[in-house]
């Protein structure tokens, strides 16, 4: 039972990383990227394909690259055009990008379950009363490091400062010479790369298939909502929490109950956080402030 | 009429009902629900269960299913309608996923996700299967009903109140609109309409499965229809439903395997090129605006 909880929490770290990327883009551009789950699966396939030819670390690098490219293209080709439009247009747009990625994956790889075979997938580490899956532990550490790196990049570097400035006031950003569309593109690239990297780690820890994207999206969105549009580590922690609950519930009851539980937690979090109800205006874009 | 024409018309009318249901809450009230399919699915399961377990006739089960879906809308609306914008959209998306998970899990209701089969032949059937022509008539009636509901609501006190809420909720409260009650009513009616569509579909499909009745693609396709036709108008969703049903039917005939891919591209095109809808004046200007924007980006720094 405690092992199930711990392993669930380790798996939740991957959701947490994707949710941190989701939160970053949300905070910076006001867009909720509903393709985040599909991006995770895309990263998983990229890692799986490269790992079969070369090795797993190379696969993870390719996953990062693929995510960055897709994210940048998504922002420049779609989301920048929708700035200032009603928020549901961007939601419908990103959802259909996710649908397109999912159906491409189904066409290319069919619905078979895939996993990157490796030594650490089956190794179990015993720590006192806990039996931890080694691959999960490694993936969790990578996800935590990646979340930290993303947070550091956005909060403590010159680039992050420019990005936050552009996010707070797009017009003022333009007047001071910031390349706002390109900055937003890079923000989306980082956010998507977080998802594909998390997906790559997912492919190292367990089986996945082309149709998993929607379920992952629900968990990512729930984690991001619970974390609130605040610091990235909150979204990461919420992902870990959801993972721990999923692990425990999956151990005690049918796994399908997990999603139902996620909504209960989400609703409770929203009800308890009055900030959430008034944080965003109707359009969801404009002066959202930085990652404070 | 050939079976092909009948089934296409049936699908078209089905989407008109769901699109009008979304139009009520998303178009008129400005609360973009990404979980509309939850009510569609609840309506479908209600019809299947009422016909199987309670041995009710379809004609009794269908209005009851609409009531059940409407009540479920009230239940979800109470917490969810306190949220706004993206929070509401994502919360409804998660709520729909949770509803699907419950339907897939609850063994007594749904034989553990394997699907329920409504009895349509033999001595135990409660209502004879309607056949292709019968379903076309049924769905045409439902489509006309849904258009009527939206047309009537638009010109009532409720319709005006919803549009004030969409444009400025604080203003609405200031001028005395009971915003919470108004939104909840619209959400429940919208849920009941989606439940009607789902209930009728369940009988048409005979076998209902959680994956089919709660497919989130239905929600997004519906949103694309309303966006394409013009959100908040009476006939916009009808125009959008005709356009997208024609397109999906054509794609199904030519490239059935890449249906979702083409669908996604069409929704993207609708969102980028006609965000205000075909049903509104000046749409041609909007149609080309993003293209000119691409050629001559206005987002350059003003000073360099």
In short, what is this structure?
The complex is a heterodimer of chains A (292) and B (304). By secondary structure, chain A is mostly helical.
Describe this structure in words.
- The complex is a heterodimer of chains A (292) and B (304).
- A two-stranded antiparallel ribbon of chain A has the order 1-2.
- Chain A has 292 residues and is mostly helical.
- Chain A has helices at residues 2-29, 36-53, 56-79, 87-109, 134-156, 158-168, 170-175, 180-205, 213-227, 232-252, 257-272, 274-278; strands at 124-127, 130-133.
- Chain B has helices spanning 3-28, 36-52, 58-80, 85-105, 107-110, 131-154, 157-167, 169-174, 179-205, 210-213, 216-229, 236-254, 259-273, 283-295, and strands at 116-117, 207-208.
- In chain B, helix 2 (36-52) packs parallel to helix 4 (85-105) and helix 12 runs antiparallel to helix 13.
- By secondary structure, chain B is mainly alpha-helical.
- Helices cover 74% and strands 1% of the residues of chain B.
- Chain B has a single domain (3-295), classed as Orthogonal Bundle (ABC transporter involved in vitamin B12 uptake, BtuC), CATH 1.10.3470.
- Chain B has a two-stranded antiparallel ribbon.
- Chain B contains 14 helices and two strands, in the order H-H-H-H-H-E-H-H-H-H-E-H-H-H-H-H.
